[in-house]
Inverse folding.
C-alpha cells in the first residue's frame, strides 16, 4: 500500500486488449496503466515500479520518489513541488503544465523527456541525464544543472536565467528563443549547438566549448567568454557584443546597431510557464 496518503488517491488499472478468466490469469504481460489523482503530499513512493503511470490534476508535493521507475509516465496539471526523484528512471516521460519547482532530479534518467509549460525553477538536476529531450516554455531559473547532459535536445522558449549549469553538456542541441542571462555555464559544452538568436547576455561562460556552434545574431553583451574554447572570429562576426563582453585573447567582436531583434527582448520571455496550483482537496 501507498503510505501517508493525505487525501483521495485514485488508482485505475486498465487492461489493454486482455482476455478474461483463466486466460487473463495466465497472461503476465498484460499492459497496465495506473492513474493517480487527488493529493498524496509527502507520500513515500521510493523505488516503486510505476511504468506508464499518469498523474493528472494531482498534488504530490514533497513526495519521495527516489529510484522510482517512471518510464513513460505522464504528468498533466500536477504539482510535485519539492518532490525527490533522485536516481529515478523517467525515460520517455512527458509533462504538461506541471510544477516541479524545487524538486530533486539528481542523477535521474530523463532521456527523451517531453515537457511543455513545465516549471523546474530552483530545482536540483545535477548530473541528470536529459539527452534528446523536447522542451517548450520550460522554466529552469536558478536551477542547479551542474554537469547535467542535455545534448541533442530541442529547446524552445526555455529560461535558464540564474541557473548553475557549470560543466553541463548542450552539444548538438537546438535553442529557439532561449535565454541564459546571468547564468553560470563555465566549462559547459555547446559543441555543434544551434544558438541562433539566443541570449547569453551577462552569462558566465569562461572555459565553455563553442566548437562548431552557430552564434548567428546571438546576444553576447556583457557575457564572460574568457578562455572559451573553439570560439572563432567567424562566429563572433555573426554575434553581438558590447564593451562589457569578455573574449579570449586575439578575438574581437562588434556591436549590433539597430538590427538586434531578439524575441525575448522585444516582447518578454515567451511562454514562461505559470506553476499550476495544487488541486483542491477531494470531498470527504
Amino acid at each position: 500500500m501507498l503510505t501517508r496518503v493525505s487525501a483521495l488517491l485514485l488508482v485505475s488499472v486498465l487492461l489493454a486488449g486482455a482476455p478474461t478468466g483463466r486466460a487473463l490469469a495466465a497472461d503476465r504481460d498484460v499492459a497496465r496503466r495506473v492513474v493517480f489523482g487527488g493529493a498524496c503530499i509527502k507520500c513515500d513512493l521510493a523505488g516503486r515500479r510505476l511504468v506508464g503511470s499518469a498523474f493528472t490534476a494531482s498534488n504530490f508535493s514533497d513526495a519521495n520518489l527516489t529510484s522510482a521507475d517512471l518510464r513513460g509516465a505522464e504528468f498533466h496539471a500536477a504539482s510535485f513541488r519539492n518532490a525527490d526523484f533522485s536516481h529515478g528512471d523517467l525515460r520517455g516521460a512527458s509533462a504538461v503544465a506541471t510544477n516541479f519547482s524545487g524538486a530533486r532530479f539528481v542523477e535521474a534518467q530523463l532521456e527523451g523527456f517531453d515537457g511543455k509549460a513545465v516549471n523546474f525553477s530552483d530545482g536540483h538536476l545535477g548530473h541528470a541525464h536529459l539527452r534528446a529531450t523536447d522542451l517548450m516554455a520550460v522554466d529552469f531559473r536558478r536551477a542547479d544543472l551542474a554537469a547535467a547532459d542535455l545534448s541533442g535536445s530541442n529547446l524552445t522558449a526555455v529560461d535558464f536565467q540564474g541557473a548553475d549549469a557549470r560543466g553541463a553538456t548542450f552539444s548538438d542541441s537546438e535553442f529557439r528563443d532561449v535565454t541564459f542571462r546571468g547564468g553560470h555555464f563555465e566549462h559547459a559544452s555547446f559543441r555543434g549547438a544551434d544558438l541562433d538568436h539566443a541570449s547569453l547576455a551577462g552569462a558566465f561562460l569562461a572555459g565553455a566549448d563553442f566548437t562548431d556552434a552557430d552564434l548567428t545574431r546571438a546576444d553576447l553583451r556583457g557575457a564572460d567568454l574568457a578562455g572559451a574554447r573553439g570560439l572563432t572570429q567567424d562566429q563572433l562576426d555573426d554575434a553581438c557584443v558590447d564593451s562589457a563582453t569578455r573574449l579570449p585573447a586575439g578575438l574581437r567582436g562588434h556591436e549590433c546597431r539597430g538590427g538586434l531583434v531578439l524575441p525575448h527582448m522585444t516582447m518578454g520571455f515567451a511562454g514562461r510557464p505559470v506553476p499550476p496550483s495544487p488541486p483542491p482537496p477531494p470531498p470527504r
Q: What stands out?
A: The beta strands are 35-39, 54-59, 74-76, 94-96, 114-116, 134-136, 154-156, 174-176.
